[in-house]
Amino acid sequence: MKLNKYIDHTLLKPEASEAQILKLCDEALEYDFYSVCVNGCHVPLAVSKLEGSDVKVAAVVGFPLGAMSTAAKVFETREAVDAGASEIDMVINVGALKEGRYEYVLSEISALADTCPCLKVIIETCLLTDEEIVKACELAVEAGADFVKTSTGFSTGGATEEAVVLMRRTVGDKAKIKASGGIRTLADAQKFIELGADRLGCSAGVQIMKETVTTTC
After folding, report:
1. How far is CA 29 from CA 9, 12, 55, 206, in A?
2. Which end of the chain is more exposed for a tag (fewer CB within 10 A), N or C?
3. Each residue's pLDDT expressed in tens, for the chain with a length of 217 residues
4. What's residue 196's pLDDT?
5. Between the CA of residue 180 and those of 73, 116, 146, 159, 193, what are the distances in Å?
6. Catalytic residue among 49, 56, 89, 135
7. CB contact at 8 A, 45 and 19
8. Known catalytic residue: 191?
9. DSSP state letters, 139-175
10. pTM of the prediction?
11. What is the model's pLDDT at position 213?
């Protein structure tokens, strides 16, 4: 698979304007990225801009803290899907996971998996021990999630080699891996793909693709 098709071209800053979202979509069309990943309020605009293309629209849910009620996350998911989002990147309730309320975490992921075509579960690895990363991945698989994802990019750290290796080892072929947070260079992108990432969340997708041109010249 070509590098561009690994990339979810991402803009999740709270100050993002409609003009910036339209630019994001234009860039995604130019480089034929897999998707754009945006906050829920921007889904209708992105869907309209990308209509007729094969670039998908992903929306974040429970972002970036994951500490909303399950009902709120389900509502947010349904609203995004109804507006045309084909993928949802949801943040787990990190506190519930860390204190061992696994049934709560499982039930919440299951509720969202039943509500959308493709669910990526953000486990926020920078806040978890290795044992907690493994448990979060196991719960995501059991709940029927399509991906486990490293990070929001808004916490204390982003994707790491160690986390991606551990996540891949845990889920095997039962789910895909999305590495996200701090992936800014071609070397970063290639490293995480080699370690087993199936998708990359990048705000620097354009710069990465420009590097591929420079590298091949």
Report:
1. 10, 18, 7, 11
2. C
3. 999 999 999 999 999 999 999 999 999 999 999 999 999 999 999 999 999 999 999 999 999 999 999 999 999 999 999 999 999 999 999 999 999 999 999 999 999 999 999 999 999 999 999 999 999 999 999 999 999 999 999 999 999 999 999 999 999 999 999 999 999 999 999 999 999 999 999 999 999 999 998 765 5
4. 97
5. 21, 21, 16, 5, 12
6. 89
7. no
8. no
9. HHHHHT-SEEE---SSSS----HHHHHHHHHHHTTSS
10. 0.96
11. 82
* Given 49, 135, 178, 188, the catalytic residue: 178
| Whether the Cβ atoms of residue 109 and residue 139 lie closer than 8 Å to each other | yes
CA dihedral for 104, 105, 110, 116, sign (positive or negative): positive
Active-site option among 56, 149, 176, 188: 149
Active site residue 178: yes
Distance of CA 182 to the CA centre of its chain: 13
Residues in the chain, total = 217
Q: For residues 200 and 206, is the Cβ–Cβ distance under 8 A?
A: no
Eight-class DSSP state of 128:
S
Active site (annotated) includes residue 198: no
- For residues 60 and 167, give the distance between their C-alpha atoms in angstroms, rounded to a whole number: 21
CA distance 131 to 17: 39
Contact status, residue 20 vs residue 45, Cβ threshold 8 Å: no
